[in-house]
Amino acid sequence: MFKTVEWKNSSVVMIDQRLLPGAEVYRKYTDYKGVARAIKDMVVRGAPAIGVAAAMGVALGASKIKAKDFKAFKKEFAKVAGLLASTRPTAVNLFWAIERMSRVAAENKGLPIPELKKRLVEEAKEIHRDDIEINRRIGRHGGRLLKSPSTVLTHCNAGALATAGYGTALGVIRGAIEAGKKIKVFADETRPFLQGSRLTAWELKKDKIDVTLITDSMAGYMMKKGLIDAVVVGADRIAANGDVANKIGTYSVALLAREHKIPFYVAAPLSTIDLKIKHGDNIPIEERDSSEVTHIRGKRIAPQGVKVRNPAFDVTPNPLVTAIITERGVVRRPYIKGLKGLFRKG
Asked: What is the set of active-site residues?
């Protein structure tokens, strides 16, 4: 079984998702700047996986700090955290993980510096372990919502590759199958980075789950023909009112689902919910390099000099969301009350 990201021999190892499905290559990073570049360049992607990678990047950077006291350590630690925080603006899990690591550093400032460094490494490993168990709980909760037999459409990749393991949206599909349900999957290609065709189809085939690849523009046709029973997607940030930021194209799929009276589910851990952002209009949307649109695998497919827009995410308004699936259960409207309630549970 592949591993998305792991701590190994005082380094961070990640599968290079840019090369899938053609080659299964693992990159080893021995300094935090390399981890930051890997996040920015999408060697690793998917909000939970970005959070885990960032935590490990913080631990890696902290382990190399040369400081005799906490004051000097804290100054260098801030540089490490700052660089990692600058890599991807939309996925809130990145900032959640960095804040958690920063809190652990502050809470253990009385430790000798070598012991503090070890404590940070252990915290990063714990974030990794927690993410896998959280995804399995999401899968159990969400799996109950899917009928048997049914065909599920998913957009982008919210599977094991987007997390520490198991997945959020694909975790729901895996959870339903593990419960004995008969589930088939339509994976749309997810232009421009092709996470659906390159990644989702790849990992579902590895798990021997029935998957059919379609282009993004085929979703409406498939829905009209009655070939899709539910939509399950992940999320990169969920606002306090239930507006959902996810890979560009998610909003279009949600509109199609409403038109065809198909449930539209969002699966995400609590770390993706940002109660400080009241609604989706305030979620920062990353604009990526134009070459992702004009080129595929380095080959130009668009005219030289054409103007390009490449927002990496869009926001699906909460009225289009049937339910949000988390490790602490399923939330339905009104989302403001329901999402806040999740954080009051034990």
From this structure: 236
